[in-house]
Amino acid sequence: MPAVITPPAPFANAPRPFERYQLAMPNSPTAAKIARDFVGTLLRTGPHSALADDARLCVSEVVANVYCHTRSRLVRVEVTVDGDQVAIHVTDDAPGPLPDPPERPEGEGGRGLLVVDGLATSWGSSTRQANSRRINTVWFVLTPPGRDTEPDAGPATAAPDARPGTGARSGSGPTGSRSQR
């Protein structure tokens, strides 16, 4: 049964239509570049062009984490655009849990989720079972600088293995916990 990816909480009760784009690709050394190009193409030519560079960097970091830290065969990227906000889900079906972000990053690697935390308005992760597979999702929301960063979360169900980002405020999110800065 294919994984079902739900939109993040900011768009769950949106009164206006939103756009959703999906990409599924093999988990390979080129997956981060493919995801980065996909997101850049979607956002650079439209009203979300101000968010394109941050979105490209964040999706590249999260997809690279899938390649480096999982044995997943596929990576799925879903981009949801609504008004000024862009939300991106990166999902894998790896057999293990999501890696913990480092406490004090030293060396050249290990900063992917810290980059997401620094650029995203909110982000989070969740793990759920689907048949015999474990489905891991990392999601993040980007808004232009100066915009209201408190999305209308609406009702949300917390997942038992959900982990929030490390931002200043936390609360229920799309598939578990979320963090907002």
Q: What is the straight-line distance between the termini?
A: 35 Å
Secondary structural class: alpha+beta
Q: What is the strand content?
A: 25-35%
Number of domains: 1
Poorly predicted segments: 1-7, 149-181
What is the C-level CATH assignment?
Alpha Beta
Describe the 3D structure.
- The chain is α+β, with helices and mostly antiparallel strands.
- The protein has one domain (19-180): 2-Layer Sandwich (Heat Shock Protein 90).
- Helix content is 24%, strand content 30%.
- The protein contains four helices and eight strands.
- The protein has helices at residues 9-12, 31-44, 52-69, 112-119, and strands at residues 19-26, 74-82, 85-92, 122-130, 133-142, 163-164, 169-172, 177-180.
- Strands 1, 2, 3, 4, 5, 6, 7 and 8 form an eight-stranded antiparallel beta sheet that branches.
- Strand 7 (169-172) and strand 8 (177-180) form a beta hairpin.
- The N and C termini lie far apart (35 Å).
- The model is unreliable at 1-7 and 149-181 (pLDDT under 50).
Provide a brief overview of the structure.
By secondary structure, the protein is α+β, with helices and mostly antiparallel strands. Helices cover about 25% and strands about 30% of the residues.
Secondary-structure blueprint:
Elements: H1 9-12, E1 19-26, H2 31-44, H3 52-69, E2 74-82, E3 85-92, H4 112-119, E4 122-130, E5 133-142, E6 163-164, E7 169-172, E8 177-180
Antiparallel strand pairs: 1-2, 2-3, 3-5, 4-5, 4-6, 4-8, 7-8
Helix pairs in contact: 2-3, 3-4
